[in-house]
Amino acid sequence: MTSRKQENLVIEQRGRRKDRDTGAFQEIHQTAHWDPRQTGLIICDMWDDHTCKFAAQRVAEMVPTMNRMVSAAREAGVFIIHAPSGTMSFYDETPQRRRAIEAPFAESPVEIKWNYWDPEREGEPLPFILSGGCGCIEPCLGWITDDKGSRQWKGGRGALDPTD
Q: Per the structure, how many domains does the chain have?
């Protein structure tokens, strides 16, 4: 993504497409042009910490690259949305939460629905997914739920730049 203020964002997209005849996947590349005033970037579940230390480590590895990308998007005028799950009360009084609540409604051009794991299409999930997400040999202390079935940590964002 180009980070200078401009009329359109230039996005280099990558994907994979399955060849109908051979069944092999081929990498595809294309350039897209998006209006930053009509673009939102949704960041899901970037925690400041995590009860699973492997999960926290994976987030920490992504943060530097994500900070560069989010900064470029913000500079271009993209609306940044942090979407943590389970910790929203931590953000109740923040200006960022108020701005998100007051943002104008935008209808999605496609239906958004939850898709459950489909073993027929995706294969069997890895054992750590089945156990709730902790990939450690011994489940991390705190990953095991309390008597109410909840696991709590402070909030989202990880080390992402908090200016949005």
A: 1
Contact 49, 9 (CB under 8 A): no
Q: Which domain holds residue 103?
A: 38-107+124-130
Instruction: Look at residue 79 and tell me if it is in a domain.
Output: yes
DSSP of the chain, one letter per residue? Answer: ---S--SSEEEEEEEEEE-TTT--EEEEEEEEEE-GGG-EEEEE--BS--SSHHHHHHHHHHHHHHHHHHHHHHHHTPEEEEE-SS-GGGGTT-HHHHHHHHSPP---SS--------HHHH-PPPHHHHTTS--SSSPPTTTS--TTS----S-B-TTS-TT-
Burial 103-117 (b: 16+ CB within 10 A, else e): eeeeeeeeeeeeeee
Place of tokens 């009509």: 38
- Please say if the pLDDT value at position 29 is more than 90: yes
pLDDT band at 97 (very low <50, low <70, confident <90, very high): confident
Residue 105 has pLDDT above 70, yes or no: yes
pTM: 0.63
Residue 98 domain-assigned?
A: yes
